[in-house]
Amino acid sequence: MAQASSDTAVRTGSATRFIIYTVLIVFCLYYLLPLYVMVVNSLKPLDEIRGGGMLSLPEVWTLAPWGSAWSTAQIGVEATGLKPYFLNSIIMVVPAVAISTLLGALNGYVLTKWRFRGDTIVFGLMLFGCFIPFQMVLIPMARMLGLMGLAGTVPGLIFVHLVYGIGFSTLYFRNYYAQFPTELVRAAMIDGAGFFRIFQRIMLPSSGPIAVVCIIWQFTNIWNDFLFGASFSDFSSQPMTVALNNLVQSSTGVKEYNVHFAGAIMAALPTLLVYVVAGRFFVRGLMAGSVKG
Amino acid sequence: MGFLDIKQATKSYGAVQVLQETDISVEEGEFLVLVGPSGCGKSTLLNMIAGLEDVSSGEIAIRGQRMNEVRPAERNIAMVFQSYALYPNMNVAQNIAFGLEMHGVPKPERDKKVQEVAELLQITQLLKRKPGQLSGGQRQRVAMGRALVRDPDVFLFDEPLSNLDAKLRVDMRTEIKKLHQKLGTTIVYVTHDQIEALTLSTRIAVMFGGYVQQLGTPKEIYDNPANMFVAGFMGSPSMNLFPATLADAGGTAQAEFTLKDGGTGVLPIADPAIVKHAGRKVILGIRPEAITDPDGADRNSKAIHQLEAQVEVTEPAGSDTFVVTEFGGKEITGRFRADVAVQPGTSHTFAVNMEKAVLFDPETEARIR
């Protein structure tokens, strides 16, 4: 990317460049301000926050708010901290992302390489599914989960996210596989590979970039989801986002802002981590297929 | 019954019939080339043999066994694709071994066969590389290796040379021919390049518009084209085709046509049977190499006829000079020896080998015999 942009960039004088960079840095700082506020205030004792000066660095550095948010803070009626809910989120998000990505890949493979009568209609309907507002399905979904005996459980939440996630993951993989040469599939057929062998040996190993895009997208959406978590979970199966809300709402007289900040950062960390680790593949994957070579 | 039998096979997509009823019987060890312009149905027919496309009606049989319902993997065929279709995530050795692996051949035997094929194609040093690290010619070899290693009943080639540059294409063509002579395998080969068809094949099927226009040996196709399409498609530069009228000249036929200067050109027809068509308008077909300077004419021919005509353009091509004139209002190309002095705009003697002339009906475009 860097080489490409330096080749085509317009050459500018150093004065212009200075102005551009100054403006950009100011914007950067402005955008990073909320994160700064969260971090510094999560590391101060509560009375420093109440004494005003949200922007100042802590006089006494302390990790106590983090400890409290993680294991002792009052969440709803119980003083468990965010820990169990963080685990709930993990055991919800990992299978939901893995299964929806895999099924999306399989759908994309069928929709591009094993085309059948009406495949475009099927794909159209799946796309349509991506854009149905969440609120619309709440009541039917609650009924379905009840019938399946999954109401208020983590598997129930996984199911809901799976249903919503497949539309998007199918879209990603279908468009990626549409660029994938069909002759390879035909060659593998003649070589004697069957439907799943071709998928596993030929398609999947070439799907790295789009899989990264899909995983980041699904992970961010499912991890950050609040509505489904709030609607379909029990106390025992609440995800992190709902627990964070409960942490902030359930005050015992004093609002422990430093603990709230620490909790909010904890809730945001996994998605941040995913972006940092896989971010550069993200752009590459989004661009894949758009330009040849 | 042959080794590979195509019996009354057709292919339709909905109401559109892309392949008309086709009958071809290929003997074991034969090199059949399907040649024709884009959209003539040649690739469709190949894919039907491979099992990648269904047969709409009729039958395809290999070794006398009906193949219509057999899956591609179980037909014991191998195919080389136009894009080579090498698996990008596997190295060369894995690419070649993939088909064997899918057919459950144990690893030591696979390795041995890969090694043999790699030696045959001289790609041993490439076995550990990924397809992305290979040149076009090397990819081509790997694609052939992947087909060879399976030791199939029939090899199918789908325009395998069309992605190579001109020089490499000629080299690979020779190599494929050598390989066929060495291994004696049965090959069905699709191309739109008539030179490839003529050089490689033992038999050619010229296809156009979903029909097999003519099926025959390269020599039959070249010397005795069944219709004007085959005559014009095969050969480079292509056959001269121009209108003429047949007249009876005392027991034998002669073709009469206008020359550039307004005079009438006359060429006697060698075949005495043609006289029965006297009075008909025909299209006369003569290949460029049958129109030469008088000294360059074929000494074995008993029907060389000379005539004076205006030279319009000369195109020196190194070994020969192509001389363009006009018969019957059509541009005619003759092939002169390079050292004959010919000036454009002047008149020159053309020697026409009438043994090689063929006649077509202007309406039906079919051969008149």
TrEMBL record, chain A:
It is a multi-pass membrane protein. Residues 86-278 form the ABC transmembrane type-1 domain. The keyword Membrane applies. The chain crosses the membrane at residues 18-39, 85-109, 121-142, 154-177, 198-219, 261-283. SUPFAM superfamilies: MetI-like (SSF161098). It is found in: Cell membrane. The keyword Transport applies. Keywords: Membrane, Transmembrane, Transmembrane helix, Transport. Belongs to the binding-protein-dependent transport system permease family. This is Carbohydrate ABC transporter permease. It comes from Roseibium sediminicola.
UniProtKB/TrEMBL annotation, chain B:
Residues 4-234 form the ABC transporter domain. The keyword Lipid metabolism does not apply. It holds the Pfam family OB_MalK. GO terms for molecular function: ATP binding. Keywords: ATP-binding, Nucleotide-binding, Transport. SMART domains: AAA. Gene3D superfamilies: 2.40.50.100, Nucleic acid-binding proteins (2.40.50.140), P-loop containing nucleotide triphosphate hydrolases (3.40.50.300). Belongs to the ABC transporter superfamily. PANTHER family: ABC TRANSPORTER ATP-BINDING PROTEIN, MALTODEXTRIN IMPORT ATP-BINDING PROTEIN MSMX. NCBIfam families: PRK11650.1. This is Sn-glycerol-3-phosphate ABC transporter ATP-binding protein UgpC. It comes from Roseibium sediminicola. The lineage of its organism: Bacteria, Pseudomonadati, Pseudomonadota, Alphaproteobacteria, Hyphomicrobiales.
